[in-house]
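User: quick one, sequence for these tokens?
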């Protein structure tokens, strides 16, 4: 049986959940809507691919090597909404509590990490599944 590596684009999943659900807050008034949505999305992946080795890949904070190559890289992108940014650390806590690996590489975007892992895993004859809404990752389909 071929082993399966399931690479989840954590930022894309969290962002999708944030935009898909109405704002929710816990009793302390902290935003939790994206967390609720993304946990349900991860649960569905776990049910669909129970034997897969799942990794949550997330963008590391700060600039990437692309900013060094092109100073205007993402310069006109609006900042992340505060209610979304506030849910990143709790998301990481949840992922860790679920026993899933959380991977960030300083200076590298998540989609580059996903691309590298997908190619390397395929070279080792692993089945690779990428869970993301990022259409740029479609180039990895083989």
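Assistant:
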């Amino acid at each position: 049986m071929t082993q399966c590596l399931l690479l989840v684009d954590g930022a894309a999943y969290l962002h999708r959940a944030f935009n898909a659900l109405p704002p929710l807050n816990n009793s302390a008034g902290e935003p939790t809507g994206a967390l609720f949505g993304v946990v349900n999305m991860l649960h569905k992946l776990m049910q669909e691919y129970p034997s897969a080795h799942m990794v949550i890949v997330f963008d590391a904070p700060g600039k990437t090597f692309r900013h060094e190559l092109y100073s205007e890289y993402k310069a006109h992108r609006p900042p992340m909404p505060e209610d979304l940014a506030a849910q990143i650390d709790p998301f990481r806590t949840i992922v860790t509590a679920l026993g899933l690996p959380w991977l960030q590489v300083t200076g590298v975007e998540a989609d580059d990490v996903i691309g590298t892992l997908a190619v390397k895993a395929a070279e080792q004859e692993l089945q690779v599944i990428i869970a993301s809404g990022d259409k740029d990752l479609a180039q990895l389909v083989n």
